[in-house]
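Hi U.,

Before I forget, here's the chain from the pilot set. I'm dumping it here mostly so it's searchable later in email.
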Amino acid sequence: MKHLCKELSEDCWELILNQLAIDDFNHLQSPSLVCKLFLSITDRLRLKLDASNRLFYSHNCEGLFRAFQRFANLQEIELRDPIFGDKADVNYPLRRIASSGLDLQSLCLRSLQKPPFPKTFMKLGSTMSNLKMLTCCWVKGFRNHHLVAIADALPWLEELDIRFSGYFWNRGLNSKPRRGAKHMVTDAGIEVMSLKLRGLRKIDIAGQVGCSDRSLIALSSNCELLHEIRCGLCEVTEHGICFVLRNSRNLISLDAGPYYTVQDDLFTFENSMIYATSLRSLVLEAKEDHDRLLYSISTSGIRLEKILIYDDSGLSFHGLSSFLCGCPSLTHLTLCSNNFLTDNYMRDLCRYLPNLVSIMFDQCSNITTATFFILAKECPMLSKIGLPNIKPQVEDDFNLELKRNYRIRSLDLTCSVYLNDEFIKKVGAVCPNLQTLHLTGLLRLTTEGIGEILRCCSRIKHLTVDRTRDMAIFLEQFKTRRIKIGHGYYNLEMFYD
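Structure:
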């Protein structure tokens, strides 16, 4: 008796192909070439388009426009870094996007040589009524009138990102712009924008040194729904930050980076932190003031979940341990440029980290690989560890019992030049369920170590290693596992986000 072979239904194929799209929409490219059915399904599933540089050039834009017609369900488009100088005109593709009939929710303009014209934003606003998220980051020449044009054209915006856009200079706490206010975004522009975008929920003005406490006060006063503010490397003080803590009752995430302390001010962390009842994520660079800041958090009753502690000036072990003890809700911890921390200190601190999900050490010079094994053993909920530039432990300093941790999914060992195959093999034994592993810059690592950890950790999907001919040939044998091989560099922002 013959068995009839039934084809899978279109709904089943859509479920299968959708699994490919979860990791990366580009994974749909190959299936779309198989047959008309797969082409129809992948076109339906494709929600994001990341346009390459060449698509900006007017003679090549037709390829971009055909993509608009093919992927009718696009919700996100990103246009990046035109490399053709004055010939690259972002206004042309943006006007075509506006008239494409797409119903975008997110538009990202990144690293442009020139910002769009104000009338181009008005064109977008006339057709994109569901556009909620707009990014204009690292855009040269971005000024107040561009910001106001965005607010006029898209008054329904909920998320706006203009970080590091405007006139470029060397930024830092003590640096000053070399040109006048008309060449940058200033407090005046933020004040006007905040009055027009009343429904704003997220704002990123990092790197806008023309913005000060006035900007924070305007945003906090006029945009009552704000739940995320990023203003790192702006000219803000403790006064402005505390005004936000007191008045933005929906604030969940605040990244103010380095700030200036104001003497004899009525608004201080001690008398303001108690008002930030919704705050869950905090990044503040408290120069010579860490213990005071951390004490104000731990005694406020805030259920903080994420914090980045940069530098150890004004930070003591007692202050850090008291803070961690007072914040049992903490799930994400990032420690940067902290030189007093040692492996022994980390062993003591682990008792206060029962709910920790991810931890990152950056430029903590006295932390060694012993801390990795301590964390794996003592933090049962931990799934993500970042240890870039880590050093091997000193022999006989610790008699460490290797204990398997089945929760750890991601490990970053970027630029840890002294680590070797032996340590990587131990990682494989300790973390059998590892899925993401960054090993770029490990000069002593060989194909033997890579092969061993890939055999021990059968679930690895993302691997970052140095590009060499031997490594490329070796990794060919693992291509059936569909491991995404990267050759990138360590990125702190990506980890913390």
